[in-house]
Design a protein that fits this description.
The chain has 369 residues and is α/β, with parallel strands linked by helices. It contains 10 helices and 12 strands. The longest helix has 18 residues. The two termini are 49 Å apart.
């Protein structure tokens, strides 16, 4: 694939930012596009520096060679002894997630520790100032001692204190729930067709969402599933290295794997976020891969719709983020959304992160019956 770096034609040096930080910011952008390939990212960075004289704009002499040595000294890259190539470290993996979070969720405000509050009361984790009579079944961890004592004194004397069950008063608590999310990422070949890089924004969203949950909503869970000819679960640390393959799109198995993951979660809120740009074009049939890239094959589509219905019956909401504008593909997404009673967004690459952020936060506040 050929990349044109038009966004760096007017590279500006941020005031107050060190030469290392300036180059590291560019390096991490290139590293995401290069799927974690350090050599490729540094090659692109060197080309950019030669063409746009980035290092020449620094107040003090600082070369690409010095930058590479600083990356090593600061623990961002290291030598892989097996094949003698430079690789990124866990420190860089975390830095990439944080950078994606800052880039996509720049308007994020500091929140709580990860509880998902709703607008009704019950057995929960946060005490409210209001009190009510004890219902006879719940634990007395939120006992209102003062209110209980007052109730008891109303029918007692100083010589005889009689505490009855009806005297017990407890504080109201705010009901909270946890959210289990599976993020589905399409790695089919269409994610880089026609010279448009669609996989990099998808990876940035995944890294940002995982960092958001780990940082601010640690009681939630996020699982990530990649899908092409088949679907497989990956870990957060695998995200920078994701690459598009010569794959068709097995949407059915992607949803199936996500549903099986969520079956093991004992949360009230379960959801699937699916980022895709293509139609479902393959599925397994009698152990063999059945594929059809021409049009919407109803045999494949119907199996996907069946999976969407299964998710609905298990109270799993599917939210599809469609990064393609083909009307017939949008019709398929609407059909699947109707089968699941879920949601769909037809998002462009530059607003994909905002859509997912808004939907995730909205679901945090969803009332759970």
């Amino acid at each position: 694939m050929k990349y044109t770096y038009t966004q760096w034609k007017d590279v500006a040096i941020n005031q107050g930012q060190s030469p290392f930080d300036t180059l590291n910011d560019l390096f991490q952008q290139l590293l995401t596009i290069a799927s974690g390939d350090v050599s490729q990212a540094l090659k692109w960075l060197t080309t950019l520096d030669k063409e746009y004289e980035i290092t020449q704009n620094f107040d003090e002499p600082y070369s690409i060679a010095e930058f590479i040595q600083d990356l090593i000294d600061k623990g961002y890259i290291e030598l892989d002894n097996q094949d003698s190539t430079m690789i990124i470290t866990p420190k860089t993996e975390k830095s990439l997630r944080e950078r994606s979070l800052n880039e996509i969720f720049s308007s994020l405000k500091k929140g709580g520790a990860g509880n998902h509050k709703t607008n009704f009361t019950g057995s929960g984790v946060e005490r409210q100032p209001e009190t009510r009579p004890w219902n006879g079944n719940e634990e007395l961890v939120n006992l209102d001692a003062t209110g209980t004592m007052i109730n008891m004194l109303k029918h007692s004397s100083l010589d005889s204190l009689n505490l009855n069950e009806e005297d017990l008063q407890v504080y109201e608590t705010e009901y909270s729930t946890q959210v289990a999310t599976v993020l589905l990422i399409d790695l089919s070949h269409s994610m880089i067709l026609y010279g448009e890089d669609r996989i990099t924004p998808a990876k940035k969203v995944a890294m940002a969402l995982s960092e958001l949950i780990m940082r601010s909503y640690s009681k939630d869970t996020l699982d990530i599933v990649a899908f092409g000819n088949e679907a497989w679960q990956i870990s957060v640390k695998d995200l920078p290295y994701l690459k598009v393959g010569p794959y068709h799109t097995n949407t059915k198995q992607g949803l199936e794997v996500a549903r099986h993951i969520l079956q093991r979660k004992k949360f009230a809120n379960k959801q699937i976020f699916m980022i895709t740009d293509g139609k479902p074009s393959c599925m397994f049939e009698n152990g063999r891969l059945y594929k059809n890239s021409f049009g919407l094959d109803r045999k494949i589509v119907n199996k996907v719709l069946d999976e969407a219905v299964k998710c609905r019956r298990e109270k799993i909401t599917i939210t599809t983020f469609m990064i393609a504008s083909d009307p017939y593909l949008q019709h398929f997404v609407r059909e699947m959304t109707e089968a699941n009673k879920g949601r769909a967004y037809f998002a462009s690459l530059d607003n994909l992160g905002g859509f997912i952020f808004e939907d995730y936060i909205k679901n945090r506040k969803r009332r759970v019956n």
